[in-house]
Fold these 3 entries.
Entry 1:
Amino acid sequence: MVLFGLIIVFQIIYFILTSFDFASERKKSNEQNEWLAHQDEINALKEKTTTKDTIYPFNPNFITDYKGYILGLSTSQLDKLHAYRASGRFINSVSDFKQITGVHDTLLLKLEPYFKFGNKPLYYNNNTSSVKEYSRSRFASDSKAVKVIDINEAIEEDLIKVYGIGPYYAKEILKRRSVLGGFVSMDQMDDFSTLSAEAKSELKKYFSVSKIPEIEKINVNTASLLQLSRFPYFNKDIARSVITQRSMDGKIRKIDDLLEIQNFPVDKVKIIALYLEF
């Protein structure tokens, strides 16, 4: 009788435990079914939010290696393009781009809507293989002499008229002018390392420094480390060296004293001197 009673007790316990497990599994199953019911909606939202490659309008005559990589050009295609440009010639059409680079039609079809060429075509002298440019800049709308503008009075609309200068570079030039207080030489256009040689040449052609602007000069003997570091032609290392040198010598008397500083931009010393006082 005792054994019989134990069997009944164990059966009851087993029944209770299995009932809990079944209820738990059923709850889990219901949650999974509810999740799966929303899966299609989740997938649809993922497709909508998936980031797609964005291609911005570009001039094929001024493609960097990084830009070419983003556009999907191979190394050999970029080499062909750079070699063609190094010869002094320009690409004027999509067909020119295809012929020079050998790009596949599939990629060309993708890029075609984003090509942006100069406002006026470039013509070539077949006898000399040199470039002849007719009205290359929007400044040169006729054969009359072009009025040269003072770079320190130019506005963004003036700058973007130059071949090779867009809104981005126009803003960068104006920003640099604001930081410096004004440009003292058109050679300062060479400071924009990512700007093409053609664009720099065009800037120097249509703009000039007619007079040296009134600049709030930096006194190298009293300026703080922060002030010296913010000067575009210095960095923190040069700024520290200037302070160290004036501490050791008592005073920096002339620009030549700064030439002793390691990594000082000697090639720009004449320009730098116009922004400093001693």
Entry 2:
Amino acid sequence: MTKAGTSHTTDTNLRRTAEQLFAHELAAIAKDDERARPAEWRLSPQAVVTYIMGGTTKSGVEITPKYIGNRRLVETAVATLATDRALLILGVPGTAKSWVSEHLAAAVSGSSQLIVQCTAGTDENQIRYGWNYAQLLAKGPSREALVATPLIRAMEQGTLVRFEELTRMPSDVQDTLITVLSEKMLPIPELNDAVHAKRGFNMIATANNRDKGVNDLSSALKRRFNVVVLPLPATLDEEVRIVVKRVGEIGGGLELPKIAAADQEIMRIVTVFRELRDGQTLDGRLKLKSPSGSLSTAEAIAVTIGAWAEAGHFGTGEIDAQAMAANLVGAIVKDPVQDKVVLAEYLETVVRDRKPWADLYGAIREVM
């Protein structure tokens, strides 16, 4: 398996940003993009959609798809960013919310690095601004002593800012954003001043409501977002295509040992995930219990990457049942009691009866 859509680089960073990985595509699109662009946008809305969904530029440069799914959803997201309403990308875990958010920021603003990763410990100072206490003690409150957050930098530069997992943040901290989204300004009471958003500023937030510990958005904050819901892949083939593509990109970026193409093994991983996730076999003939985890597309990608590393470093150079087994068990069994029962039942009622899957049945049984 080889890396798809990017060229080799001597960059030693473990992970490169979207604008670094696909710089040649962004440059090619921009060169041929003759449509009108909103203020401070690097590309026109139509070109942003081409970058996300894939296509071919006028000069013949092939643009790889970054998102495999409904084009209309991406068009709605891009159109929202061209207005004064913020964008909330909603979906269950693993539906490429963060991935789409990063690529939208890269295409629109040329940078995806103005980001706030929301957690239960995120406070108002991480959203609004902080202070350089040495400057504060020496000179008192001043703009020089103020430490700008990604939100302030985006407002001043007229670019996009990303808030990842917005509902992980406490509700009272979330509401700090209401004034920014409504008035396009952030008051600084200590200085009797305010930061006013430059044209081109907007916000992309992502959230899901399946995980435990989620803080719902207030109705006042919800009204200030246009919501786009990213669904799970509609079909088995679509999900397999997504996993194959992302595994190729990630594995190549990690410079994992080259191995034989593993499309058939990926098909088995995705089949297991879809059947357990949906609570029934693909043909609908047998009802199944579902484990406590989400078994998302992102987790299928992680399982395949783990199997690739195992096969490349310790196996035969080919992903097989032995390389997949421990990674599958680790992804499925989050609750050591409940999920182990679910997996054992699935093995006995489904996997054991599929003759081509005899190797997978034995390998999983060996590591359970």
Entry 3:
Amino acid sequence: MFNIYSTNDSENDIMAKKNRKQIPNKTQRILFAQSAGICSMPDCNNPIIITEINNEKSSIAELAHIEAYNPDGARFNPNLSEDERNYEKNIIVVCKNCHKKIDDFPEIYTVEKLKQIKQEHITKIELLKENLINFDFKDLTFASNSILENSIKNKDNNIISLEHESTYELRSIDHKLRKNNLTYPSKHLVLSALTQQNTVTSFMSDCSKNNENFPNQLKISLKETYNKLKKNHSGDELFFEMYSQFKDNLNETEQAACLAIIVYFFTICELFEK
């Protein structure tokens, strides 16, 4: 179904792969669906389907074993049967370069680390599949409360300015995406959320009539969480961790509203690096 041989394989390696049990087609389909056409490695996230000359498409995807199939492979576990080595949970979808990297440095890319990377990638893709649906002020209120309740209160009384462009220049957004090393998964969500930023802006203005410090309180809570998370996370991982901190106990529309609030502060340069 898919080419699982690497251009880095020697002739003996390829022969060994041909003689071993192949990954079942059903398992391959599940793995590629989970990856959504993107390398699972967080510092890569590149498409694994590329367009070459004359718009012909080519796959650079590889199905990498977390615990090696062959005894001389990286992270081999003799306690796994041949069938268990080809189970979905023991395979991660990566590009060719990342496959070589994780096998060349097994002391860095341990079994536990790769399983964590795989699960985090699946979580990202699930978020991407949740199209930003329409939400209202009620949803934004629940989302705001979640952000405030999940952060330590701060007594900073500075007010942030709400006077910013209601239309967004892609150049400035792209600059900030690059500045924060945000790639396809995060960029997709940011640009999707921008389509509903007028609703968020109106909500912030409306809430400010009753509590002029309300937008600032939200900003402080988000900044506090951001400063805490950036010690151990960066790029796409940091963006998704920010969202994950506040979305629990919210329904689908409230989660969409929560993400839109994060993107709102991102676009007016009150969150993440400017």
